[in-house]
Amino acid sequence: MKKMPKALLFDVFGTVVDWRGSITREAQALLAPQGHALDWDAFARDWRSRYQPAMERIRSGARGFVRLDVLHRENLVETLEAFGVTGLAETEIDHLNRAWHRLDPWPDAPSGLARLKRGAIIATLSNGNIALMVNMARHGDLPWDAILGAEVARAYKPQPEAYLRSCEALALAPGETMMVAAHNSDLVAAAATGMRTAFVLRPEEYGDPQHEDAQARGRYDIIADDFHDLAEKLGIAAN
Amino acid sequence: MKKMPKALLFDVFGTVVDWRGSITREAQALLAPQGHALDWDAFARDWRSRYQPAMERIRSGARGFVRLDVLHRENLVETLEAFGVTGLAETEIDHLNRAWHRLDPWPDAPSGLARLKRGAIIATLSNGNIALMVNMARHGDLPWDAILGAEVARAYKPQPEAYLRSCEALALAPGETMMVAAHNSDLVAAAATGMRTAFVLRPEEYGDPQHEDAQARGRYDIIADDFHDLAEKLGIAAN
Fold first, then answer.
1. What residues of chain B score a pLDDT lower than 50?
2. Which of A2, A200, B24, B107 has the greatest number of beta carbons closer than 10 A?
3. Element (DSSP H or E) covering residue A221
4. What are the recorded GO MF terms, alphabetically (chains A, B) (predicted)?
5. Does the CB of B122 have a partner CB in chain A at under 8 Å?
6. CA angle, A15 as apex, A201 and A154 as ends, to 5°?
7. Which CATH superfamily is domain A19-102 in?
8. Segment-wise mean pLDDT, segments of 10 residues, chain A, 239 residues
9. What is the pLDDT at residue A2?
10. pLDDT of residue B136
11. Which residues contact B103 (CB under 8 A, 6 or more apart)?
């Protein structure tokens, strides 16, 4: 193992928190009592599937930067329509949209992050906006040193500016930092900016062993089973 | 007491940490062994006195936005010159400049912030840059939910944008937040944007009972003796 990175920068949706399980539960909790009988897991996946295309309009310059909360809400309206859900109050749509602020962490994440924090700065490098990340951290006991990423950088991953400006905010060179993600495309883009990389396996993100992110497909500095395994491989003791 | 603010936004230098005592100690620790016999407290005050004029050039538009670390270093070179200190290595100047990343908290700050955090989001709204705030928080065990302020807002207090963009990053209206500071001018500017205000007495910041910030000079929502007293007045229990 080379020298300890000075900062570990984390992808969040899927890497730190279980968006699929949490959104499935929140959608069912709101809509089932109103008589809707949907495939809740499909509902969650549909909503999530509109995420990359919505950001792509911003990455391409077709639209100016707006926060992820705004994109999530526009996408939710489309998903509700696709599933034939009508008649929700605006406040109910807002409440469901804020389910992204209440995503549950993977079981190892709170204690694993606390452990990793003893060895390096830990910060978010997510496409989620600051308010979303702050509320999620308070909900899930995620002890971030800083909330960085898209809103601070005014650029969405995988644009290089999203990574470079997050490192710069910490006054660190990319090579002094490590990107931690459960997604190959994120790590490939981070590595291209000079960041070191750690792939964390999250097989339950999609629950599909055929999914492209079910295994590491690039050459990464570390491949880990969870955050405690990552700490182990970085040489950060459990206590 | 009105409803609990959703977020408490903190001035940091002087309000959370003791810059004068810390800078005095760091300057002496570096320079005394090299044979310098200065008035260390005067050295710290001189360096700090160059802070507002340096930011003013940016606030006025005479200079584009640069981080406080950059201004601190330029100011340090001037202070060293004013005190006749020559011959320091660039790495020594860098080390002393980073003393701002290692400022010690007032004794009540770590436990007081942990208590306040149970009732509201706590975030920095300082003119200090992100790296400085992150390193200081790790040094002093300051459990911020988020690092906001000048670098995120790209504006220095007391410009209204510094306050407004920090509230906006939390997706909160100014009236849902409270500015916490030991400085009258900061609170007056925050109140003008619609933020609520809490004045915290820090008589040792300057150690001068005649200093303009030795007492509250405006009408604030709360005046507190320290962060535990602030928590008490907000109704946040000690445990």
1. none
2. A200
3. none
4. (S)-2-haloacid dehalogenase activity
5. no
6. 140
7. Putative phosphatase; domain 2 (1.10.150.240)
8. 88 98 98 97 97 96 96 98 97 98 98 98 98 98 97 96 98 98 98 98 95 95 98 94
9. 65
10. 98
11. B13, B17, B18, B19, B22, B23, B136, B139, B140
Contact B138 A147 (CB under 8 A): no
Half-sphere exposure of A2 (CA within 13 A, CB side): 11
Sheet containing B7-10: order of strands = B146-149, B121-126, B7-10, B177-181, B196-200, B222-224
Q: How far apart are CA B32 and CA B15, in angstroms?
A: 28
**Which residues have C-beta within 8 Å of that of residue A195, sequence separation ≥ 6?**
A9, A163, A167, A174, A175, A177, A178, A179
Q: Is 0.90 exceeded by the ipTM?
A: yes
CB-CB under 8 Å, B69 with A130: no
- A-chain CB neighbours of B136 within 8 Å are none
Q: Between chains, do A170 and B131 touch, taking CB under 8 Å as contact?
A: yes
pLDDT, mean over chain B: 97
Pick from A133, A143, A171: CB nearest B131: A171
Q: Torsions phi, psi of B178, nearest 5? A: -135, 130
Residue in chain B lying closest to A120 (CA): B138
Structure tokens at B120: 């509201």
| Other beta carbons less than 10 A from residue B116's beta carbon | 21
- Do B169 and A151 form a contact (C-beta atoms < 8 A)? yes
Q: Does any CB of chain A come closer than 8 Å to the CB of residue B150? A: no
Do B169 and A146 count as a contact with CB atoms less than 8 A apart?
A: no
Quick count: other Cβ atoms within 10 Å of Cβ B154? 13
Q: How many CA atoms lie within 13 A of A167 on its CB side?
A: 20
Q: What is the CATH number of domain A7-18+105-234?
A: 3.40.50.1000
Q: Are B7-18+105-234 and B20-102 equal in CATH topology?
A: no
User: What is the distance in angstroms between the Cα of A10 and the nearest Cα belonging to chain B?
Assistant: 15
Give B139: exposed, middle or buried? Use CB within 10 Å, 0-12, 13-18, 19+. middle
Q: What residues does each domain of chain A span?
A: 7-18+105-234, 19-102
